[in-house]
Amino acid sequence: MSKKLYIETLGCAMNERDSAHMIAELEEKEFYSLTDNPKEADLILINTCSVREKPEKKLFSEIGQYVKIKKQGAKIGVCGCTASHLGDKILKRSKAVDFVLGARNVSKISQIIHQKRVAWVDIDYDDSTYVFSQNQHSALKGMINISIGCDKKCTYCIVPHTRGNEISIPADLILQEARRLVDSGTKEILLLGQNVNNYGKRFSSAHRAIDFTQLLNEMSQINGLERIRFTSPHPLHMDDNFILEFAQNPKICKAIHMPLQSGSNEILRKMRRGYSKEWFLNRVEKMRGLVPELSIGTDIIVGFPTESEEDFLDTLDMLEKVRFDTMYSFIYSSRPHTEAHHWLEEEQVHLVDEYIAKERLNRLKDRHKEILTEDNAKQIGKIHQVLVENYDVQNLWLEGRSNTNKLVRIRTDKNLIGAMCDVKITEVKGAQLMGELV
Ligand code: 5AD
Ligand code: SF4
């Protein structure tokens, strides 16, 4: 009987991809099979996120929960960003943890499971040319890492500390992986990196150096590949060349994530984002000029140290001007090893009062909800191209994402999973669009 693996994944798409890599390695090299029941697992992995303090704090209570229900002899491993960040402190604090594997070390998963009480968290480790085992389950949508780590020094962000310096994965390996996925039935590929559009700046050894725009172009020439998405790009690196390729290449989906973080130039400077609100707006206008249906997503942090009401109003003003289609918003959380954390420790700056930060977050979210309701209503009658991913037999509808990444349900009794369909929107329910085949 094969051994069972249970894996819990927190955090971003990068962590999801890392989990998929670890699953494939353990299936192929160690003969594990995946279970969704931790009680029957021989190995429990928690792939952690440390971008904000709360999930990190929850880690130890979660380990406690697993200890209560796990099979006798089952191992527990802590992987990912909190593993990088806390390292062997996790082993010291919890006797139940068998090993700790940092976010930059996932390629060592099949070795570390045979070790006792070790922490492998080297953030200089380079697995940019490691060829991971292949996931056996063919899927309509695939993910490919194009770079690891991050070279930016945003003053709030712990990621450079948990994932190390940025290294690009050689283009030929990426394209080979894309061809393999397409041959096994994948229609849509999501390219991943902390800073995808900085691709090509540094490779670990001599490789054909191309930039992100060229990579998109070469990937789009793969026959059978229908859609390309990517996340997360940095607004600073959205040059004209990139915007033209993005706009003109029909395989590149017309949805882009542009993490604004703040609408105040003063706060952007303190965050060390490298752009102004004027630059951000200029990029948005240029893209929307070329792609009117473009969907724009963003991330916003409220309550960054020193943020005044006026700074926050600048953020609200950017929301009015851009009318983001999706918005993830967070209250600033002070993270160790970041510059803003040092400013706070040295009392050069102070945290924004928690009550004020919460109130700002609510105002931002409320206004965004109103904007979405107004903008979604304009979708009625529009035609979207949808890649069908699910068939809900009970409700008799198909589910998929439009090219602009909106969730669309299609009323029909036909099972069209895998098909690319033109759909006319007839109804809007919250953020979700209902439609019919045309
Ligand atoms: N506090 C709050 N939010 C943060 N993010 C990153 N670091 C922090 C922090 N210290 C948010 C940013 C980023 C998203 C992934 O998480 O908005 O884009
Ligand atoms: Fe992803 Fe950042 Fe969280 Fe790590 S800390 S899992 S890179 S969001």
UniProtKB/TrEMBL annotation:
Residues 377-438 form the TRAM domain. [4Fe-4S] cluster 1 binds at residues 12, 49, 81. Its cofactor is [4Fe-4S] cluster. Coiled coil: none annotated. Its EC number is 2.8.4.3. Residues 136-375 form the Radical SAM core domain. Monomer. This is tRNA-2-methylthio-N(6)-dimethylallyladenosine synthase. The lineage of its organism: Bacteria, Pseudomonadati, Campylobacterota, Epsilonproteobacteria, Campylobacterales. The gene is miaB.
